[in-house]
């Protein structure tokens, strides 16, 4: 076979694949999006199209199909807060701990979006709350975005609230830096927090950070649940 004939065959094969892709998208009314390596399954998951998702799975689409960056349909469903799609993918054998080339998991995406329901679902299916990396954990992500509901779910599943990551700190530090008071409160009361021993500890350092960022000591104490009137005292 000549090189010209081989090239023509390959091109025909690619055109055939594109035709199938476009046909599936048209039939299921799925926006093809802008990522050339995304499958119809990725699109259905990202858009929360549950019926389309189930149809594609019944047609034999690989539930763990990857993009060039190793993004799975489950990543997309969790980032979009589509709990029904996430559940369907998990029931079909979706990898709950799939990791992208950037170290992102479906649980991380759920915490980034603030989807407490997806967080609960993923944990029920065995999602790891922290991989063996120095990247931010789901708890750090939830704390940085102020998603206290996600944090509450993670805490109820026994995460290490004092998990310290080099160059990033603990979830408490991240929450204080971002002035997310609800997250600060949940993390403090979930840890080994005691008024008589906290001076000089990392928790104390976090609250100092919070005071400095808020420019007021009283607001920091209010974050701990104390009913006090702000005096406006600067730190």
From TrEMBL:
GO BP terms in the entry: positive regulation of protein catabolic process; protein ubiquitination
Keywords: ANK repeat, Repeat, Ubl conjugation pathway
Entry keyword annotation includes Nucleotide-binding: no
Listed InterPro entries: Ankyrin-SOCS_box_domain, Ankyrin_rpt, Ankyrin_rpt-contain_sf
SMART domains registered for this protein in UniProt: ANK
Signal peptide: none
Residues in ANK repeats: 36-68, 69-101, 102-134
Coiled-coil parts of chain: none
Family, per entry: Belongs to the ankyrin SOCS box (ASB) family.
Protein name: Ankyrin repeat and SOCS box protein 5
UniProt lineage: Eukaryota, Metazoa, Chordata, Craniata, Vertebrata
């Amino acid at each position: 076979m000549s090189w010209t004939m081989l090239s023509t065959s390959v091109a025909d094969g690619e055109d055939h694949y594109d035709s199938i892709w476009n046909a599936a998208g048209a039939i299921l009314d799925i926006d093809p999006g802008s990522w050339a390596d995304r499958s119809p399954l990725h699109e259905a998951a990202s858009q929360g199209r549950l019926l389309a998702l189930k149809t594609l799975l019944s047609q034999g689409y690989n539930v763990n199909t990857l993009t060039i960056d190793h993004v799975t349909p489950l990543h997309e469903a969790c980032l979009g807060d589509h709990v029904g799609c996430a559940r369907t993918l998990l029931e079909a054998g979706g990898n709950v701990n799939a990791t992208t080339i950037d170290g992102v998991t479906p649980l991380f995406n759920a915490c980034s979006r603030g989807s407490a329901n997806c967080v609960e679902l993923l944990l029920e299916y065995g999602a790891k709350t922290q991989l063996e990396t120095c990247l931010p954990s789901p708890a750090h992500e939830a704390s940085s975005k102020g998603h206290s509901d996600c944090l509450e779910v993670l805490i109820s599943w026994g995460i290490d609230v004092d998990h310290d990551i080099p160059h990033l700190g603990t979830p408490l530090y991240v929450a204080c830096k971002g002035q997310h008071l609800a997250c600060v409160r949940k993390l403090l009361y979930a840890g080994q927090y005691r008024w008589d021993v906290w001076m000089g500890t990392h928790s104390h350092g976090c609250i100092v950070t919070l005071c400095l960022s808020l420019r007021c000591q009283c607001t920091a104490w209010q974050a701990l649940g104390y009913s006090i009137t702000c005096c406006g005292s600067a730190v």
